[in-house]
Design goal:
single chain, 205 residues, alpha/beta, 54% helix, globular, binds ligand Z5A
Protein backbone atom coordinates (compact mmCIF):
# COMPACT_ATOMS: atom_id res chain seq x y z
CA UNK A 1 0.00 0.00 0.00
CA UNK A 2 1.48 3.30 -1.12
CA UNK A 3 1.11 5.80 1.72
CA UNK A 4 3.75 8.42 0.89
CA UNK A 5 4.05 10.68 -2.15
CA UNK A 6 6.61 10.33 -4.93
CA UNK A 7 8.02 13.52 -6.46
CA UNK A 8 10.56 13.59 -9.29
CA UNK A 9 12.57 16.57 -10.51
CA UNK A 10 13.98 16.72 -14.02
CA UNK A 11 15.34 19.05 -16.68
CA UNK A 12 18.47 19.75 -18.70
CA UNK A 13 21.90 20.17 -17.05
CA UNK A 14 22.15 23.21 -14.84
CA UNK A 15 18.37 23.64 -14.55
CA UNK A 16 18.84 23.78 -10.76
CA UNK A 17 17.47 20.38 -9.76
CA UNK A 18 19.90 19.76 -6.87
CA UNK A 19 19.46 23.31 -5.59
CA UNK A 20 15.67 23.03 -5.59
CA UNK A 21 15.64 19.50 -4.13
CA UNK A 22 17.67 20.74 -1.12
CA UNK A 23 14.96 23.34 -0.50
CA UNK A 24 12.07 20.90 -1.14
CA UNK A 25 13.50 18.47 1.43
CA UNK A 26 13.88 21.14 4.11
CA UNK A 27 10.36 22.44 3.36
CA UNK A 28 8.91 18.96 3.78
CA UNK A 29 10.95 18.34 6.96
CA UNK A 30 9.56 21.56 8.45
CA UNK A 31 6.07 20.28 7.72
CA UNK A 32 6.86 17.08 9.61
CA UNK A 33 7.06 14.90 6.51
CA UNK A 34 9.74 12.20 6.50
CA UNK A 35 11.60 12.38 3.20
CA UNK A 36 13.88 10.01 1.34
CA UNK A 37 16.02 11.77 -1.23
CA UNK A 38 17.47 9.87 -4.12
CA UNK A 39 18.88 10.24 -7.62
CA UNK A 40 19.09 8.55 -10.99
CA UNK A 41 21.05 6.89 -12.28
CA UNK A 42 22.11 5.64 -8.84
CA UNK A 43 20.50 5.94 -5.44
CA UNK A 44 21.27 2.35 -4.36
CA UNK A 45 24.53 0.47 -3.91
CA UNK A 46 24.13 -1.36 -7.22
CA UNK A 47 22.66 1.74 -8.90
CA UNK A 48 25.69 3.86 -7.96
CA UNK A 49 27.98 1.28 -9.57
CA UNK A 50 25.85 1.41 -12.72
CA UNK A 51 26.05 5.22 -12.58
CA UNK A 52 29.86 5.08 -12.57
CA UNK A 53 29.82 2.94 -15.70
CA UNK A 54 27.28 5.23 -17.41
CA UNK A 55 29.11 8.48 -16.70
CA UNK A 56 32.69 7.25 -17.16
CA UNK A 57 34.32 9.20 -20.02
CA UNK A 58 36.37 6.10 -20.84
CA UNK A 59 33.19 4.35 -22.02
CA UNK A 60 32.78 6.36 -25.22
CA UNK A 61 31.97 3.26 -27.27
CA UNK A 62 28.91 2.29 -25.21
CA UNK A 63 25.98 1.38 -27.47
CA UNK A 64 22.89 3.59 -26.99
CA UNK A 65 20.69 0.54 -26.26
CA UNK A 66 23.14 -0.53 -23.56
CA UNK A 67 22.97 2.97 -22.09
CA UNK A 68 19.16 2.81 -22.09
CA UNK A 69 19.04 -0.61 -20.45
CA UNK A 70 21.56 0.42 -17.80
CA UNK A 71 19.38 3.43 -16.96
CA UNK A 72 16.41 1.10 -16.51
CA UNK A 73 18.49 -1.45 -14.56
CA UNK A 74 19.50 1.24 -12.10
CA UNK A 75 15.84 2.38 -11.98
CA UNK A 76 14.54 -1.10 -11.27
CA UNK A 77 16.96 -1.48 -8.37
CA UNK A 78 15.87 1.91 -7.02
CA UNK A 79 12.13 1.28 -7.36
CA UNK A 80 12.16 -2.21 -5.87
CA UNK A 81 14.69 -1.72 -3.09
CA UNK A 82 14.24 1.90 -2.09
CA UNK A 83 11.29 3.83 -3.47
CA UNK A 84 8.45 1.34 -2.97
CA UNK A 85 9.55 0.28 0.54
CA UNK A 86 9.84 3.97 1.56
CA UNK A 87 6.42 4.91 0.11
CA UNK A 88 4.84 1.92 1.82
CA UNK A 89 6.19 3.15 5.17
CA UNK A 90 4.60 6.55 4.55
CA UNK A 91 7.82 8.43 3.67
CA UNK A 92 7.79 10.85 0.78
CA UNK A 93 10.43 10.23 -1.87
CA UNK A 94 12.09 12.98 -3.90
CA UNK A 95 14.16 11.78 -6.83
CA UNK A 96 16.68 13.80 -8.83
CA UNK A 97 15.60 12.51 -12.28
CA UNK A 98 13.41 9.53 -13.22
CA UNK A 99 11.91 7.83 -16.28
CA UNK A 100 11.14 11.07 -18.16
CA UNK A 101 14.92 11.53 -18.41
CA UNK A 102 15.22 8.26 -20.37
CA UNK A 103 12.67 9.51 -22.91
CA UNK A 104 14.45 12.87 -23.10
CA UNK A 105 18.11 11.74 -23.17
CA UNK A 106 17.97 8.33 -24.84
CA UNK A 107 14.87 9.10 -26.94
CA UNK A 108 15.58 12.76 -27.72
CA UNK A 109 19.35 13.00 -27.32
CA UNK A 110 20.32 9.58 -28.69
CA UNK A 111 17.29 9.42 -31.01
CA UNK A 112 16.19 5.95 -29.89
CA UNK A 113 12.63 4.95 -30.79
CA UNK A 114 10.29 6.39 -28.14
CA UNK A 115 7.93 3.40 -28.54
CA UNK A 116 10.71 1.00 -27.59
CA UNK A 117 11.47 3.11 -24.52
CA UNK A 118 7.76 2.96 -23.63
CA UNK A 119 7.85 -0.83 -23.87
CA UNK A 120 10.82 -0.96 -21.54
CA UNK A 121 9.13 1.49 -19.16
CA UNK A 122 6.00 -0.70 -19.12
CA UNK A 123 8.13 -3.74 -18.40
CA UNK A 124 10.05 -2.14 -15.51
CA UNK A 125 7.43 0.20 -14.06
CA UNK A 126 4.02 -1.23 -14.96
CA UNK A 127 1.54 1.29 -13.54
CA UNK A 128 4.05 2.77 -11.11
CA UNK A 129 4.60 6.51 -11.69
CA UNK A 130 5.39 9.68 -9.75
CA UNK A 131 2.59 11.65 -8.09
CA UNK A 132 4.24 14.85 -9.30
CA UNK A 133 7.07 15.62 -11.70
CA UNK A 134 8.66 19.06 -11.58
CA UNK A 135 10.20 19.84 -14.94
CA UNK A 136 12.65 22.70 -14.44
CA UNK A 137 12.94 24.32 -17.83
CA UNK A 138 15.81 26.57 -18.88
CA UNK A 139 17.40 27.13 -22.24
CA UNK A 140 20.35 24.86 -22.97
CA UNK A 141 22.55 27.94 -23.11
CA UNK A 142 21.60 29.13 -19.61
CA UNK A 143 21.95 25.60 -18.20
CA UNK A 144 25.42 25.23 -19.72
CA UNK A 145 26.53 28.63 -18.43
CA UNK A 146 25.50 27.64 -14.92
CA UNK A 147 27.63 24.49 -14.89
CA UNK A 148 30.60 25.68 -16.94
CA UNK A 149 32.69 26.37 -13.83
CA UNK A 150 32.74 22.65 -13.01
CA UNK A 151 36.10 20.94 -13.20
CA UNK A 152 35.28 17.96 -15.41
CA UNK A 153 32.42 16.87 -17.64
CA UNK A 154 30.98 13.35 -17.50
CA UNK A 155 30.42 11.12 -20.57
CA UNK A 156 26.94 12.48 -21.33
CA UNK A 157 27.84 16.13 -20.65
CA UNK A 158 30.44 15.86 -23.43
CA UNK A 159 27.64 15.71 -26.05
CA UNK A 160 27.17 18.62 -28.46
CA UNK A 161 24.58 21.32 -27.97
CA UNK A 162 22.10 19.87 -30.51
CA UNK A 163 21.86 16.75 -28.33
CA UNK A 164 20.69 18.86 -25.36
CA UNK A 165 18.26 20.84 -27.54
CA UNK A 166 16.62 17.53 -28.49
CA UNK A 167 16.59 16.51 -24.81
CA UNK A 168 14.82 19.71 -23.84
CA UNK A 169 12.33 19.38 -26.65
CA UNK A 170 11.27 15.86 -25.55
CA UNK A 171 10.94 17.04 -21.95
CA UNK A 172 8.61 19.84 -23.09
CA UNK A 173 6.57 17.46 -25.28
CA UNK A 174 6.11 15.11 -22.34
CA UNK A 175 4.89 17.93 -20.10
CA UNK A 176 2.30 18.69 -22.79
CA UNK A 177 1.33 15.02 -23.12
CA UNK A 178 1.01 14.45 -19.34
CA UNK A 179 -0.09 17.83 -17.95
CA UNK A 180 -1.67 16.34 -14.81
CA UNK A 181 1.61 14.82 -13.64
CA UNK A 182 4.40 16.89 -15.23
CA UNK A 183 4.44 20.56 -14.27
CA UNK A 184 6.74 22.69 -16.38
CA UNK A 185 8.36 25.44 -14.34
CA UNK A 186 10.30 28.29 -15.88
CA UNK A 187 13.63 27.82 -14.09
CA UNK A 188 15.40 30.86 -15.56
CA UNK A 189 14.44 33.10 -12.62
CA UNK A 190 15.79 33.36 -9.09
CA UNK A 191 16.15 30.32 -6.83
CA UNK A 192 13.53 31.77 -4.45
CA UNK A 193 10.95 32.46 -7.17
CA UNK A 194 11.28 28.94 -8.54
CA UNK A 195 11.01 27.46 -5.05
CA UNK A 196 7.85 29.39 -4.31
CA UNK A 197 6.20 27.99 -7.48
CA UNK A 198 7.33 24.51 -6.45
CA UNK A 199 5.96 24.91 -2.93
CA UNK A 200 2.49 25.73 -4.15
CA UNK A 201 2.52 22.57 -6.30
CA UNK A 202 3.73 20.50 -3.35
CA UNK A 203 1.06 22.03 -1.08
CA UNK A 204 -1.58 20.81 -3.52
CA UNK A 205 -0.36 17.24 -2.98
N1 LIG B 1 20.44 10.47 -17.65
C1 LIG B 1 20.05 9.87 -18.81
O1 LIG B 1 20.69 10.05 -19.86
N2 LIG B 1 18.97 9.04 -18.81
C2 LIG B 1 18.26 8.78 -17.68
O2 LIG B 1 17.29 8.00 -17.72
C3 LIG B 1 18.69 9.42 -16.47
C4 LIG B 1 19.78 10.26 -16.50
C5 LIG B 1 17.94 9.15 -15.20
C6 LIG B 1 23.02 12.33 -14.67
O3 LIG B 1 23.45 13.53 -14.27
C7 LIG B 1 23.18 12.22 -16.17
O4 LIG B 1 22.45 11.05 -16.56
C8 LIG B 1 22.54 13.38 -16.87
C9 LIG B 1 21.31 12.81 -17.53
C10 LIG B 1 21.62 11.37 -17.67
N3 LIG B 1 23.42 13.78 -17.90
N4 LIG B 1 23.84 14.70 -18.38
N5 LIG B 1 24.43 15.43 -19.00
P1 LIG B 1 22.90 14.28 -13.00
O5 LIG B 1 21.42 14.34 -12.97
O6 LIG B 1 23.55 13.72 -11.82
O7 LIG B 1 23.52 15.67 -13.26
P2 LIG B 1 23.02 16.76 -14.20
O8 LIG B 1 21.78 16.54 -14.93
O9 LIG B 1 24.16 17.02 -15.06
O10 LIG B 1 22.59 17.82 -13.16
P3 LIG B 1 23.40 19.03 -12.72
O11 LIG B 1 24.36 19.46 -13.77
O12 LIG B 1 23.99 18.72 -11.38
O13 LIG B 1 22.37 20.17 -12.66
P4 LIG B 1 21.25 20.57 -11.63
O14 LIG B 1 21.20 19.65 -10.46
O15 LIG B 1 20.04 20.74 -12.42
O16 LIG B 1 21.72 21.99 -11.16
P5 LIG B 1 22.32 22.49 -9.74
O17 LIG B 1 23.52 21.68 -9.37
O18 LIG B 1 21.24 22.70 -8.77
O19 LIG B 1 22.78 23.94 -10.20
C11 LIG B 1 23.84 24.12 -11.14
C12 LIG B 1 24.51 25.49 -10.87
O20 LIG B 1 23.55 26.52 -11.13
C13 LIG B 1 24.95 25.68 -9.40
O21 LIG B 1 26.11 26.44 -9.42
C14 LIG B 1 23.80 26.48 -8.80
O22 LIG B 1 24.21 27.27 -7.73
C15 LIG B 1 23.35 27.31 -9.97
N6 LIG B 1 21.90 27.62 -9.94
C16 LIG B 1 20.90 26.81 -9.56
N7 LIG B 1 19.71 27.45 -9.67
C17 LIG B 1 19.97 28.68 -10.16
C18 LIG B 1 19.15 29.81 -10.50
N8 LIG B 1 17.83 29.78 -10.37
N9 LIG B 1 19.76 30.91 -10.97
C19 LIG B 1 21.11 30.93 -11.11
N10 LIG B 1 21.96 29.92 -10.79
C20 LIG B 1 21.38 28.80 -10.33
Amino acid sequence: MRKGKFITVDGVEGAGKSTQIDLICSYLHKKGVEVVRTREPGGTEVGEKIRSVLLDVENQEMHSDTELMLMFSSRNELIQNKIIPALNKGFWVVSDRFTDASFAYQGGGRMLDLNRISELADWVLGDFKPDLTLLLDVSVEVGMQRIEARAAKDRIELEERAFFERVRSVFISRSEAFPERIKLIDASGSVDDIQSKIRSLIDSL
